[in-house]
TrEMBL record:
InterPro entries: Proteasome_assmbl_chaperone_2, PSMG2_sf. Coiled coil: none annotated. Signal peptide: none annotated. It comes from mine drainage metagenome. This is Uncharacterized protein. Gene3D superfamilies: PAC-like subunit.
Length: 134
């Protein structure tokens, strides 16, 4: 009841706008939202995710989001940027061609997850891809 009253439709099938996908074989859990999580839910949701991560001994968090980018600099749209929880992860990200964000602000659930990860010593990277602002 804290999320907007909407559904997503994919290939003619109604689906919840927030979904959890799991693969025990690949040891992967994916939480996917089709909308921006309301601000008043960010901390509660992030804390529940961290609780789940610690309980299930999950070692890494990967968040993916868009980074609003004005038109005019097309080269930037070919890059992937990242915010990382540790210097060791920064080295790995750089090796993968991810440009570390050294200064700036992040918001939302991924931002709360990042600070909680730093405090709990959980490996976390937030990948940000440039998206055009309208």
């Amino acid at each position: 009841d804290k999320f907007p009253p909407l559904i997503s439709v994919h290939n003619g099938t109604p689906m919840p706008p927030v979904r959890i996908y799991c693969s025990q074989k690949k040891k992967l859990v994916c939480i996917f939202a089709e909308f921006s999580i309301p601000l008043d839910v960010n901390y509660e949701l992030a804390d529940k995710i961290i609780e789940f991560i610690l309980k299930n001994k999950i070692s890494d968090i990967l968040s993916i989001g868009g980074m609003p980018t004005p038109e005019g600099n097309q080269d930037i749209f070919e890059k992937v940027f990242g915010i990382v929880s540790s210097p060791e992860l920064a080295k790995k990200a750089k090796g993968a061609g991810i440009m570390q964000i050294k200064e700036g602000v992040s918001t939302g659930v991924s931002a709360v997850l990042m600070i909680r990860s730093v405090l709990a010593d959980i490996s976390n990277i937030t990948l940000l891809v440039p998206v055009e602002t309208v």
